[in-house]
C-alpha cells in the first residue's frame, strides 16, 4: 500500500511538473492559449467524472490500473498539446484544428461515461487510437487501419470528431463501424440499416436479419418507408419470399407457411385455395404443424414455427372450440359437436392441446371421446406417433387434469406407456418455469397402474441422483421434492414440514377471532337456483341472514364466529352480477375485512373472473365449477399457501353445497379442517352418479401439483 501511495505521488507530481515545464516554455499566442485552457479544464472534468479529487482517474479498484489511466489523460494529452504547438509543418489553422479536436475528444469521452455508453477503462485505448488517427491524418493517410482494430464504442467517438471527417478513409471507416455494429447486434440490423441505406453491404445484412427473425423482418417489409423499399430490392430468395408476402393484403394468411413456400413445398396459390375454406385451412395448418414437429425432433427448426403454431391455435379456437363451448347447454351431443364431424383424430388432438386455455370441461371430454372413436386402427401410442409427439406432455397433463390419464395409458402398448412416462419426468429443470414439474406431480396422482407409478418413482430417483452428481442445484430441488411426494404418497405420511393435511382454524381467524368466508355467484340461468340452495342451507337456528341489497351476509349465532359474504346472482346480461361483486369487494376492503375462505359458485367460464378478484388473504379456496382443477396455478400465484379444492371434471351443486356445509360446520364447532377425515366422512354420503362426481374432486392433501409448488417455494427460501 505504501509502495502504491509513493508511486501515486511520484506520478502525479511528475505529470504536473512536466506540464508546467515543457508547455510553459512555449510562447503560445493568447488566442490559442484559450484552447489549451479548455483542454486542461476538460482533463480535470474527465478525472473527476468518476469521483475523487481530480488527481487520479478512479475507473477501477486497482490503483495501478488507475495510475495508467491517469497517465494517459494527463501525460499523453499534454504531449499531444506539445506536439501540436511544436510540429514542423503545422499551420496556424492546423494548430487550432487539432487543439479543438483534442478538447472535443475529451468532452465526448466524459459525456459517454456519464451516459454509460462506454466503459471508463477503455480511456487509454481511446486516447491511443485518437493519437494514431491524428498521426495518420496529419500525413494525409487513411485512418481505417486504426478503426478496424478498435471496438465500436471507441470508433463512434472517433468518427464523431470533426477533425477526421475530411480524412480519405472516413467513408470506409463509417462502413467499418456499420459492419462491426451489425455483427455485434444482429437483432438490431434493421434499425441500423434503416439509418444507412446506402451502405454497400446492406443487402447482405438484410438477408442475415431475414434468416434470424423472419417475423420481425416481415413487419419491416410491410411498412411504407424507405427501408421497406430497400428490402424489396434485395435479390436473395428468403428476403424476396418475405417481401412478396408483405406486399400482399392477405400476406399474414401465407406467412405461417414461409418455410414450406421458401423450400418450394407449397405454393401461395395452393394456400390461397385452402384459405377460402375454414376446414381446409385448418387442415393445412395441422398437416404443416405435424411436419414441422417431425423436423424439430431431428434438430431442424423451420422458419416461423411459432407463428404457424399460434395461427393453428387461433383457428382451433375461432373455428371449433368457441362454437362447441357456446353450445354447452345443448342436450344433444350430435348438435353440439356437429362441427367436428369432418375432423380426423390428429385434427381433434390439436383442439385439445392448443385450446387448453379456452376449452370447457364438457367440450374437452367430447373432443377426447371423438379422438379415440375415430382412431382406427391403433391406440394412443399410434396417435402420438402420428403427430410426431408434438405437445405430448401437454396432452398427458390435460388427460391427468380431466381424470383421463389412466384411460389414456390403457389405450397404449404397456412398454410404450412406461417409456412415455419416463420421458415425461426427464429434464424438468430445463424449463424456466415449474410448469413441467407441477404437471408430473399432478399426473402421478391420476395414475392407477402400479407398474407405471413405480417406473415414475424410479425415474425420478434416477434424475435426483444424476442432479446431485452434476451439482445441478435446481434439478436437485425439483427431483428431491417429487421423490419425497411420491414416497410420502405411498406411505400415507405427511410431507416433511408441509401443512397440507390440516388447515388449523386459528389460521383462518382475524384478530377478533372471526372467520370470514366469501362466495362468488353469477347471474346466468343456473345462478339463482344455486344461490337459493345456498340460502336454504343456512335457514336454521345456527345462522342469521342479513340482506344488504346487492349481497347477503350469513353469520353464525352459535359456536365460532363466522360470517359468509355472498353477492346476489343479478342479471349477467346487464352486468349486474359483476357490479355486485365489485361493490361487495369494495365494501370489504373499506372495512378491512380479509376473507380467508373463498368459494367459486358458477360455471367454468366464470372461474377466471373469480380468480381475478381473489383476495390474497385466502387460505382455503373451493372452485366449485367444472374443471376448476385447471386453474390451480392461477390461484397459487395470488395465494401461494392456499389449500385448494377443485374438480377435475364436472362440478355439481350437490357436492359443492355438501362440501361448504362440511367446512362451515367443522369451523363453527371449533375444529380444524382435517381434509382426510372430512373426505372420509363425505365419501360415505354420496351414492351413484353423485359419488362419481365427488370422486373427481381433489382435496388439498391429494393436490400434488399445489404441494410441489409450496414445497419448492419453501426450499428455495430456506437459508
Output the keywords.
719 residues; mainly alpha; 4 domains; eight-stranded mixed sheet; two-stranded antiparallel sheet
Element layout with pairings:
Layout (H helix, E strand, L loop, with lengths): L1 H20 L8 H19 L14 H24 L5 H23 L8 H16 L5 H6 L2 H9 L9 H15 L4 H6 L7 H11 L1 H8 L4 H7 L4 H10 L4 H4 L3 H5 L5 H8 L2 H20 L7 H22 L6 H4 L8 H10 L6 H14 L5 H7 L5 H10 L3 H6 L3 H12 L9 H12 L3 H20 L3 H19 L10 E2 L11 E6 L6 H11 L5 E5 L3 E6 L5 E6 L8 H15 L6 E4 L6 H6 L7 E4 L8 H7 L4 E5 L5 H16 L4 E2 H9 L4 H8 L1 E2 L5 H14 L2
Parallel strand pairs: 2-5, 2-6, 6-7, 7-8
Antiparallel strand pairs: 1-9, 3-4, 4-5, 8-10
Helix pairs in contact: 1-3, 2-3, 2-4, 3-4, 3-5, 7-8, 10-11, 11-13, 16-17, 17-18, 20-21, 23-26, 25-27, 26-28, 26-36, 27-28, 28-36
Q: Explain this structure to me?
A:
Strand 3 (543-547) and strand 4 (551-556) form a beta hairpin. The chain is mainly α and 719 residues long. The radius of gyration is 36 Å and the shape is elongated. Helix 2 runs antiparallel to helix 3 (63-86), helix 3 (63-86) packs antiparallel against helix 4 and helix 26 (435-446) crosses helix 36 (704-717). Mean pLDDT is 89; it is low at 490-494. 60% of the residues lie in helices and 6% in strands. The two termini are 37 Å apart. The longest helix is centred in the first third of the chain and has 24 residues, at 63-86. The chain folds into four domains: 2-168, no CATH class; 233-390, no CATH class; 408-500, no CATH class; 503-702, Rossmann fold. An eight-stranded mixed beta sheet has the order 3-4-5-2-6-7-8-10. The chain has a two-stranded antiparallel sheet with strand order 1-9.
Amino acid at each position: 500500500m505504501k509502495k502504491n501511495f509513493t508511486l501515486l505521488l511520484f506520478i502525479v507530481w511528475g505529470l504536473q511538473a512536466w506540464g508546467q515545464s515543457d508547455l510553459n516554455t512555449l510562447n503560445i499566442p493568447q488566442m490559442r492559449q484559450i484552447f489549451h485552457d479548455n483542454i486542461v479544464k476538460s482533463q480535470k472534468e474527465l478525472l473527476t467524472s468518476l469521483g475523487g479529487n481530480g488527481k487520479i482517474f478512479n475507473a477501477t479498484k486497482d490503483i495501478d490500473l488507475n495510475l495508467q489511466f491517469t497517465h494517459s489523460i494527463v501525460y499523453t494529452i499534454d504531449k499531444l498539446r506539445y506536439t501540436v504547438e511544436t510540429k514542423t509543418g503545422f499551420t496556424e489553422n492546423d494548430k487550432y484544428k487539432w487543439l479543438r479536436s483534442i478538447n472535443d475528444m475529451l468532452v465526448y469521452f466524459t459525456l459517454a461515461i456519464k451516459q454509460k455508453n462506454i466503459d471508463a477503462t477503455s480511456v487509454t485505448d481511446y486516447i491511443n487510437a485518437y493519437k494514431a488517427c491524428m498521426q495518420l491524418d496529419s500525413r494525409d493517410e487513411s485512418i481505417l487501419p486504426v478503426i478496424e482494430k478498435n471496438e465500436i464504442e471507441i470508433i463512434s467517438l472517433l468518427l464523431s470528431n470533426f477533425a477526421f471527417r475530411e480524412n480519405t478513409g472516413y467513408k470506409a471507416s463509417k462502413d467499418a463501424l456499420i459492419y462491426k455494429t451489425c455483427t455485434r447486434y444482429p437483432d438490431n440490423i434493421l434499425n441500423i440499416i434503416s439509418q444507412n441505406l446506402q451502405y454497400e453491404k446492406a443487402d447482405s445484412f438484410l438477408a442475415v436479419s431475414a434468416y434470424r427473425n423472419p417475423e420481425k423482418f416481415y413487419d419491416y417489409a410491410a411498412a411504407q418507408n424507405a427501408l421497406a423499399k430497400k428490402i424489396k430490392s434485395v435479390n436473395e430468395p428468403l428476403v424476396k419470399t418475405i417481401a412478396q408476402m408483405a406486399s400482399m393484403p392477405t400476406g399474414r394468411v401465407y406467412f405461417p407457411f414461409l418455410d414450406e413456400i421458401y423450400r418450394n413445398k407449397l405454393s401461395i396459390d395452393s394456400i390461397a385455395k385452402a384459405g377460402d375454406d375454414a376446414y381446409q385451412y385448418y387442415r393445412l395448418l395441422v398437416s404443416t404443424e405435424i411436419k414441422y414437429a417431425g423436423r424439430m425432433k431431428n434438430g431442424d427448426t423451420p422458419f416461423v414455427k411459432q407463428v404457424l403454431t399460434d395461427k393453428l391455435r387461433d383457428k382451433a379456437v375461432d373455428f371449433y372450440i368457441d362454437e362447441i363451448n357456446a353450445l354447452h347447454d345443448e342436450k344433444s351431443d350430435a348438435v353440439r359437436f356437429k362441427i367436428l364431424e369432418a375432423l380426423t383424430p390428429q385434427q381433434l388432438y390439436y383442439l385439445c392441446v392448443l385450446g387448453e386455455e379456452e376449452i370447457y370441461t364438457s367440450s374437452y371430454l367430447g373432443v377426447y371421446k371423438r379422438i379415440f372413436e375415430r382412431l382406427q386402427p391403433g391406440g394412443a401410442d399410434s396417435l402420438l406417433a402420428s403427430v410426431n409427439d408434438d405437445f405430448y406432455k401437454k396432452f398427458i397433463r390435460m388427460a391427468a387434469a380431466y381424470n383421463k390419464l389412466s384411460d389414456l395409458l390403457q389405450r397404449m402398448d404397456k412398454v410404450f406407456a412406461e417409456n412415455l412416462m419416463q420421458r415425461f419426468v426427464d429434464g424438468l429443470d430445463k424449463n424456466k418455469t415449474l410448469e413441467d414439474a407441477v404437471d408430473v406431480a399432478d399426473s402421478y396422482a391420476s395414475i392407477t397402474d402400479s407398474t407405471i407409478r413405480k417406473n415414475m418413482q424410479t425415474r425420478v430417483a434416477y434424475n435426483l441422483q444424476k442432479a446431485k452428481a452434476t451439482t445441478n442445484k435446481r434439478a436437485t430441488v425439483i427431483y428431491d421434492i417429487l421423490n419425497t411426494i411420491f414416497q410420502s404418497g405411498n406411505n400415507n405420511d405427511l410431507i416433511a414440514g408441509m401443512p397440507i393435511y390440516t388447515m388449523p382454524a386459528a389460521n383462518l381467524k382475524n384478530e377478533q377471532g372471526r372467520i370470514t368466508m366469501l362466495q362468488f355467484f353469477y347471474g346466468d340461468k343456473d345462478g339463482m337456483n344455486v344461490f337459493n340452495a345456498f340460502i336454504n342451507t343456512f335457514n336454521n337456528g345456527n345462522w342469521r341472514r342479513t340482506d344488504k341489497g346487492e349481497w347477503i351476509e350469513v353469520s353464525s349465532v352459535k359456536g365460532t364466529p363466522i360470517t359468509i359474504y355472498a353477492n346476489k346472482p343479478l342479471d349477467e346480461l346487464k352486468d349486474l352480477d359483476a357490479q355486485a361483486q365489485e361493490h361487495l369487494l369494495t365494501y370489504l376492503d373499506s372495512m378491512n375485512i380479509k376473507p380467508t375462505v373463498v368459494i367459486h359458485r358458477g360455471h367454468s367460464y366464470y372461474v377466471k373472473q373469480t380468480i381475478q378478484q381473489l383476495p390474497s388473504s385466502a387460505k382455503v379456496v373451493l372452485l366449485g365449477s367444472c374443471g376448476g382443477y385447471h386453474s390451480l396455478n392461477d390461484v397459487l400465484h395470488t395465494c401461494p399457501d392456499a389449500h385448494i379444492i377443485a374438480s377435475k371434471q364436472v362440478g355439481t351443486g350437490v357436492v359443492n353445497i355438501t362440501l361448504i356445509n362440511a367446512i362451515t360446520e367443522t369451523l363453527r364447532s371449533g375444529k380444524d379442517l382435517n381434509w382426510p377425515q372430512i373426505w372420509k366422512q363425505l365419501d360415505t354420503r354420496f351414492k351413484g352418479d353423485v359419488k362419481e362426481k365427488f370422486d373427481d374432486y381433489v382435496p388439498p392433501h391429494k393436490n400434488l401439483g399445489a404441494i410441489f409448488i409450496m414445497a419448492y417455494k419453501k426450499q428455495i427460501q430456506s437459508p
